[in-house]
Amino acid sequence: MKKILKVLLTIALPILIYGCAAPPLPDLFWPEPPDEPRIKYIRDFRGGADFKKGSAAMDILLGGEGGGSLKKPMSVHTDIKGKIYVTDTANADVYIFDTVNMTGTSLAAMGAKLFYKPIGVATDANGRIYVSDSQTDSVTVLDSTGKIVGNLVADQPFKQPSGIASDFERKKIYVADTHTHNIKVFDTETLKHISTIGKRGKEEGEFNFPSHIAVDTKGNLYVVDTMNGRVQIFDTEGKFIRAFGQFGDAPGMFARPKGIGVDSEGHIYVVDAAFNNIQIFNEEGQILLAFASYGSDRGQMILPAGLTVDKDDYIYVVDSWNRRIEKFEYLGDKAKSRTPVNVIKK
Asked: Nearest Cα to 151, choosing from 125, 109, 186, 181?
């Protein structure tokens, strides 16, 4: 025991004294130089300890847990107040990481110990939290303190609901109901079911096991039509706009499409769990760039799942096998307003 403690002290003391054990790693960009960088790796996090004020080395020495660790993260969502929500199917919980106050908690820690297999999570303009549970075939609504407000009840019962997305301006919440092959739409004020988009099939506006979904700043809905190997886009009224993608292993094709998000400039990000990367498309569905690769290092991932893009164009990706969330930055107009020019120019 004394030998182990001595080794820990040898490792940790330089961190406690000097603040770091090694020189900082170089920035990681896609595409690589000499091309102009468009995506930058920022960091990863694995649990509440990454948002805890204080020394990580002291946590190691004293055995601090720092608020719980991710085991099998599935989906990620960011709200307008800087909070990150992560569903974890192995822990049967939803973690909440506050990037402003640097704290971490979970719905179970707040008293809401009611989930079995939480898949999707989203919030609305009132701060209420929506969580889909594929084992209980339900979508639970909670307030910001973790108190249950109610449940979303559809005209046709849910069968393995998965992705959830919120349209703040139009007060709508969308739920991908995977095994009924449609998207159910609810009013966030009344929690009433107001419409359903799609049915099973391969034609425009039809789905084959839809999973992850997203809403852009215009209110358009993006659906990962998983077993049709494509993404479909709908307007605010649920009318089909376009589809792109097909099964294959060439750039712009999909093998196991998962999470999806849209940045402030209309670029569409789609995770592929088989390619272990994220592909970026323009509004017309044309491939622009892919980033990340297989592995456990920075900017690598194994079996990625959910994805979200926040209001500042930071991209969060669930790296499920590595039990972490990876954060990237799109180096567009918003990044230029807060980043030194020499970081993002050629």
From this structure: 186
